[in-house]
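pls ignore typos typing on phone
flavin mononucleotide + seq
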Amino acid sequence: MCYEIRMEKHMREKNQSGPRAKKKVADSVRWGNVFLQNRLVLAPMAGPGGHSFRCLCEHFGAAMTVTELCSARGILYDTNFVRNHRYLRIAGSKNKASIQLFGADPADMKKAVRRLLAHPEYGKTLVLDINMGCPVKKVVQTGAGSALMKTPDLAARIVEAASEAAFPYGKAVTVKFRSGWDKDHINAVSFGKKMEAAGAKALSLHARTREQMYGGRADWTIIGELAAQTSLPVAANGDIRTLEDCYTLLHTYGAELCMIGRGALGKPWIFKSILNEENNGSPLAPRPEERAKIILHHLNAVLETQGEEKGIREFRTSLVYYLKGMPKAAFYRNKAMKAENYEELKELIQEFTQGT
Ligand SMILES: Cc1cc2nc3c(=O)[nH]c(=O)nc-3n(C[C@H](O)[C@H](O)[C@H](O)COP(=O)(O)O)c2cc1C
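k done
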């Protein structure tokens, strides 16, 4: 079926009133101008959401993963992508990865998008996502990330510039943003509509304000308001952990995708678990030996890309997530921080997973 006809059919279904089949997590779904295998995606996470972790989540059923945020300006000064390859790497990803950029200058964004999409590896990104939600001072001070929610006209020009650059490559631009700057400035709906008018083809909403950073509860009602008032597909994000959460967001709040962040850390099988539960009623709980195998696979993948010394340092952060809630977690965390080589880490992983 050609793209226009599929789009028309999709929009007809989206706008249909009256009873119709409830959305399922396992449904395939349009996102920008691609179709995803199901409605579960991994949120971008700078640090723990590196290439190895993303590949693991894809293996466990995430229909899309998003790279760690990468500076549009930084890319322009990085002639051969030497410094940024570790963030942009999407090879081995079975066409499930999207690249996320941040920046505060439309001209930078346009040039960065062109450079990326002309690249043989990065050009395979599913969509180009623009970060307008990062709360970190270093980013906000430059006018990028969540600061753009205070300058919606500039944000719109960035989306226009990115869309213009992405169009010849057949790629859609998507935007990830927050509920607003703080509780007195909740503007996700007007902001999302403005991004739509500027050319964005899908929206991800982290239903917290910048002021909340990562604390407090995400307010999903804002996702509902956004989904009701835009014709774009909306990815719900913030505090998603279970199939029930997904159903609430898909059925009550009109989301099209469920974007899982911290719920996947130390638990990359969460995607398969939710899909399993929908399919046959029982979530997936890997047995100790399977858990050890998964964690070791993650470790090996990190070491393969980063080398032993750097890889071990990087993997320790991920290990802390795998240890969360485990018996004697503090003891093993301490031990992990002192582990200096692969063998020590391997032994430790086998030891602590036995206690699960
Ligand atoms: C360690 C960490 C790094 C993050 N890095 C990014 C990032 O690079 N880009 C982005 O858009 N959001 C980033 N986020 C935000 C997440 O994508 C997500 O919006 C947030 O964690 C809320 O979802 P959750 O409640 O499922 O974790 C990050 C979050 C965490 C915890």
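The pocket of flavin mononucleotide is lined by residues 43-48, 68-69, 100, 131, 133-134, 176, 206, 214, 237-240, 260-263 (CB under 6 Å). The radius of gyration is 20 Å. more later
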